[in-house]
Specification:
Blueprint (H helix, E strand, L loop, with lengths): L5 H19 L2 H6 L4 H16 L3 E3 L2 E2 L6 H13 L3 H31 L2 H12 L2 H7 L5 H16 L3 H12 L6 H17 L6 H26 L5 H6 L8 H15 L3 H7 L10 H23 L8 H7 L3 H26 L9 H50 L5 E4 L4 H6 L2 E4 L17 E2 L1 E5 L5 H6 L1 E7 L13 E8 L9 E5 L2 E7 L1 E2 L1 H12 L2
Helix pairs in contact: 1-5, 1-6, 3-4, 5-6, 5-7, 5-8, 5-17, 6-17, 6-18, 7-18, 8-9, 9-11, 10-15, 13-14, 13-15, 14-17, 15-17, 17-18
């Protein structure tokens, strides 16, 4: 017989099986690849940790390009245990599925604590387990699921007054995504609210128990960045927080709201309609939904302030907003559960003369609504499976193939310059400059061998044709039905070099990309060396 204790376990198993089925049915590209190149950047850092114990983009050179050091260390452990690339990829995906299932388990527990309604919390958790982009994210190789799981676990501990544990988990979530500092502000404000309303019961010791581990983890993170780079935040922050396309905050918020509503299928719209249930709630019952909506809004806002969603259809931008989704869903679920409960109570009071109607009517009605929504979720999962598999195929056919070609054709001492810094570095296994400055400092003085670049991996979309004509293209990789971004030109990249007898300056090349001018120093190849490289690449 099912009991309230078994429902969270059932939801864990259901979530795990749904994500696993999603993975298995996504085809060879979905099983062996990732839907964006950033996942391969994490893999680069994971491998460097397995080899040297610290964050490094190029072996032996510490880097601040990783915004999720905790996720990188988990990947490092996988690389230590499983040396083969395919087994590492599968283990990474299974870890993401496990973390997502734990998050859904906690989701169910948090709702039950607030409502004491086992069936309703079970139904709401099932709905969360079938949120299409969250299922896809669990196998994307990205850190989103880890961050959500840790912060939700911290919230669960916070709800149970386990202050030190909550602070520890919140601190770890900050090492997963720095944006989790934004919802942490809401937690601290909630504690201050308790201080104001419950002066005798509130203890400042609890406040410090929560803050101390957060302060320690935050200091370690900022200290590493300062030690390596001289700046408090990761290198990616200083590049991505200043996009070429300037947009107002209002435009960013409007686009972000559209993205969450659209990409969580029709379910996303209910996040906003769930607010309609709040006026029906009073006192303590209203506190939890408002808290969770506020946490979601903080995640949502904290990202949009710094990263403009310039391409609403791209998973690249959507994944920054996804940490808000579980908290919006929590607020939605609690608001609707209380709405149906209050509706049942009112109906009961009106029908006392004809026999009382049990308040369990509310749980029954809510469960029927959830069941209907679950059936409608199937369409969203199918469309997202197609998108996920297509994104993985695009990345595999361009960035991964170029990385493998570099590994087989170029000598070990070659220096590569690239604009997509993940798969090219991971599979190429050569000293690599990230030309956009996300992972490496690009101050080329041309005074030693690593100040000069031997080969460039350039993107057609970002490099003017006048410059491409000056270079000698060795390998051209493109993918059909490109959907990773809305710009089809980004689905084509080249391996190019400078020829010794060309008109191109032999020491400097200026590349305008994303509104910047990137100056690099090139080593030029002799015609016979170029012919040899072409032959080796042709054999791949």
């Amino acid at each position: 017989m099912l009991t309230e204790r078994k429902f969270p376990i059932l939801v864990f198993v259901f979530s795990f099986l749904i994500s696993l089925l999603f993975l298995v049915s996504s085809g060879i590209h979905g099983q062996q690849g990732f839907p964006l190149d950033d996942a391969w950047i994490h893999m680069v850092y994971g491998r460097s940790i397995a080899e040297g114990g610290y964050l490094a983009y190029n072996k032996g050179i510490p880097s601040t390009g990783c915004t999720s050091p905790l996720w990188a260390y988990l990947l490092g452990l996988i690389h230590l245990l499983l040396p083969k690339e395919l087994s590492v990829i599968w283990a990474t995906k299974l870890l993401g599925i496990l973390l997502n299932s734990i998050m859904i388990y906690l989701f169910s527990k948090v709702i039950f604590i607030s409502t004491q309604a086992a069936i309703a919390s079970f139904g709401a958790a099932l709905l969360m387990a079938l949120c299409p982009p969250m299922v896809a994210t669990s196998i994307s190789g990205m850190e989103v699921t880890l961050g959500c799981t840790l912060f939700l676990a911290g919230t669960y501990a916070y709800s149970n007054n386990k202050w030190s544990l909550a602070g520890f988990l919140f601190g770890l979530s900050g090492l997963t995504r720095p944006e989790f500092a934004a919802p942490l502000v809401i937690i601290l404000l909630d504690m201050l609210r308790q201080k104001i309303k419950q002066k005798k019961e509130f203890r400042w010791a609890n406040f410090f128990k929560l803050l101390i581990p957060i302060f320690i983890f935050g200091s370690l993170y900022l200290g590493w960045n300062m030690l390596v780079d001289g700046r408090p935040f990761p290198a990616t922050f200083y590049v991505k927080a200043s996009p070429r396309l300037k947009t107002t905050l209002l435009e960013r918020f409007a686009t972000g709201a559209y993205m969450i509503s659209k990409h969580t299928n029709w379910i996303g719209c209910l996040i906003w309609f769930g607010l309609l249930g709040l006026p029906w709630m009073k006192g303590k019952n209203r506190r939890d939904p408002i808290l969770f909506y506020s946490l979601g809004l903080a995640c949502f806002s904290g990202t949009l302030v710094f990263v403009a969603p310039n391409d609403p259809g791209a998973f690249y931008y959507l994944r920054y907003l996804l940490p808000a989704v579980p908290f919006f869903y929590l607020g939605l679920s609690l608001a609707l559960i209380h709405y149906f409960h209050n509706l049942a109570v009112k109906i009961t009071q009106k029908r006392e003369a004809h026999g009382a109607l049990s308040p369990k009517f509310s749980l029954f009605t809510f469960s029927i609504v959830i069941i209907l929504l679950l059936f409608l979720s199937i369409d969203g999962l199918l469309s997202w499976k197609t998108k996920y598999a297509g994104d993985c195929r695009n990345i595999n056919e361009v960035q991964v193939e170029i990385g493998k070609a570099i590994s087989k054709a170029f000598p070990q001492d070659v220096v590569i310059g690239t604009m997509d810094a993940g798969a090219v570095r991971y599979f190429g296994q050569r000293f690599t400059y990230d030309l956009l400055g996300l992972n490496t400092k690009n101050a080329f003085s041309c005074q030693n061998e690593f100040d000069r670049i031997d080969a460039l991996v350039i993107m057609q979309a970002w490099v003017p044709s006048t410059i491409r004509k000056e270079l000698v293209s060795l390998l051209d990789k493109k993918t059909d039905d490109y959907q990773v971004t809305s710009n089809p030109l980004m689905g084509r990249q080249f391996i190019a070099v400078c020829q010794a007898n060309s008109n191109l300056p032999t020491t400097e090349l200026t590349l305008p990309a994303l509104g910047r001018r990137l100056k690099v120093c090139l080593n030029c190849f002799k015609p016979e060396e170029i012919a040899k490289l072409r032959k080796l690449l042709k054999e791949q």
